[in-house]
Amino acid sequence: MASFAEAPDAKYYPELVTYGGLSQALRRLAENCGLDLGDVRPASDRGLSVYRTAEAASIRGLIRISTVLNRRAFSISMDSAEGDFVWANGSTAALGDIAEVIDAWRSGVFLAPLRERFPFIEFSKMAEGYERGEPAETAWSILLADDNHISHREMLAALRSNSRLSGMFPFFSHDVLRLAIDPFKRDAGEICIEPQGNGRFSVQSSPGGEILADVELADLADMASSLVDSRGELRS
């Protein structure tokens, strides 16, 4: 294995040189400070990766830790166990802070208290929405307040006012609005709404549903909601 002690940035991470890797240094901190980091381990066993990356498990998803090149900093990211979003992330020069964040996150600390304790931790409004169990409501609010989608605001407001559509998860992809039945289960299907540039829209249930073309804004919400049954599932 290549010697980390000879790497240009090794001088910034003496404890990693001493203990033989990032995960080993974290485990030693846990032992000394009485922290529960679970099975913290190298994210890869290839070459110098054992010094540069580590990961630990939590019931909310994988925790990833890495070093930063050419200066002393440790980055941490808490991934979701469901879906592909990140709960929170941040970086600090203190490895002890990283160990404490892992311990706190694994113990179930929520996002806001976590940031109060560790100001270097950042998270989004969407992550808070997932934490509250309100991903759809949060996504609607974010889109309606986003000036990047100001040209779509009237459309978004009309769709959100419909009781069947407001519970679906909205997001844009290539200027097409998609309303997902379940933000975590893409195979549950979605409704695709594409502006036609003339104040009219095409509506389609995906995958492979019928295209309802040339719909006026006044009829858009009713037309889109007609594709959803009373159970909140796409009509076959």
Would you mind describing this structure in some detail?
This protein has helices at 14-19, 22-33, 49-52, 95-107, 111-117, 125-132, 135-145, 153-160, 217-225; strands at residues 53-58, 61-67, 74-79, 86-92, 169-173, 176-180, 190-195, 200-206, 211-216. With 236 residues, the protein is α+β, with helices and mostly antiparallel strands. Strands 5-6-7-8-9 form a five-stranded antiparallel sheet. The radius of gyration is 23 Å and the shape is elongated.
Brief write-up:
With 236 residues, the protein is an alpha+beta fold. The chain has helices at 14-19, 22-33, 49-52, 95-107, 111-117, 125-132, 135-145, 153-160, 217-225, and strands at 53-58, 61-67, 74-79, 86-92, 169-173, 176-180, 190-195, 200-206, 211-216.
Total beta strands: 9
Terminal-residue CA separation: 57 Å
Radius of gyration: 23 Å
| Helix coverage percent | 25-40%
**Poorly predicted segments:** none
Which key terms come to mind for this protein?
single chain; 236 residues; alpha+beta; 5-stranded antiparallel β-sheet; 4-stranded antiparallel β-sheet; 9 helices; 9 strands; 33% helix; 23% strand; elongated
Which secondary structure elements does this structure contain, and how are they paired or packed?
Blueprint (H helix, E strand, L loop, with lengths): L13 H6 L2 H12 L15 H4 E6 L2 E7 L6 E6 L6 E7 L2 H13 L3 H7 L7 H8 L2 H11 L7 H8 L8 E5 L2 E5 L9 E6 L4 E7 L4 E6 H9 L11
Antiparallel strand pairs: 1-2, 2-3, 3-4, 5-6, 6-7, 7-8, 8-9
